[in-house]
Amino acid sequence: MTDVIRLLRREHSNIAQLLDVLDRQADLLGRGEAADFDIIEAIVDYFLGYPNLYHHPMEDLVYQKLLVRDPRTAALIGDLRREHEEEAARTREFAAAVRAVLEDVNVSRESLHERASAFIAYQRRHMGKEERLVFPAALLTLTQSDWADIRARITDREDPLFGRNVGNRYVTLRRDILDWARIARSD
Ligand SMILES: [Fe+2]
Ligand SMILES: [Fe+2]
Questions:
Q1: How far is the CA of 70 from the centre of ligand 2 (A)?
Q2: Closest ligand by atom to 7 CA
Q3: How far apart are CA 98 and CA 36, in angstroms?
Q4: φ, ψ for residue 178 (rounded to 5)?
Q5: How far does the centroid of ligand 2 lie from the alpha carbon of residue 12, in Å?
Q6: Could you identify which of 9, 57, 97, 134 might form a hypothetical disulfide with 130, taking C-beta atoms 3.0 to 4.6 angstroms apart as the criterion?
Q7: Sequence-ordered list of residues with C-beta below 8 angstroms from that of 155, at least 6 positions apart, any chain
Q8: 79-118 confidence digits (pLDDT tens)
């Protein structure tokens, strides 16, 4: 496997953990219990940043190469770049809904629960599609020089949540993720 796909898969598993944390908060909202809005805000903030800046653009590069090498498969998969635009728009909408609840504007917690569930489902579906269809097709058809090209166009990335240096606003969230991971392992 190339290091490009390995990195994308690692980021998927990070994002999957994050969605699990959000899912638990959404559950609390759905049951009318107190959710942790610091955690929810930090998650939304992360989604607005790192994945949009680095993760999806890297996948777009892979998809562009796939379009050239195997246009039929790329067409069957559908336009990944458009999906990323849609994903960015959905993230912004969800972020606005979270802000509205925090500012007490006209959005009920129940409706936030529904929006959170829809957001989580979309993200999981999108990642599943990439894992199932995009990555295997790219691994099958892209050449060494394609991968080298992609690697050369990747900018330095510093993941503020899962990287070595955790940003101030993500410290609690990172601890929460690690706690849940520990609990899941001991189950
Ligand atoms: Fe993606
Ligand atoms: Fe992805």
A1: 20
A2: 2
A3: 12
A4: -65, -40
A5: 6
A6: 134
A7: 54
A8: 999 999 999 999 999 999 999 888 877 678 888 999 999 9
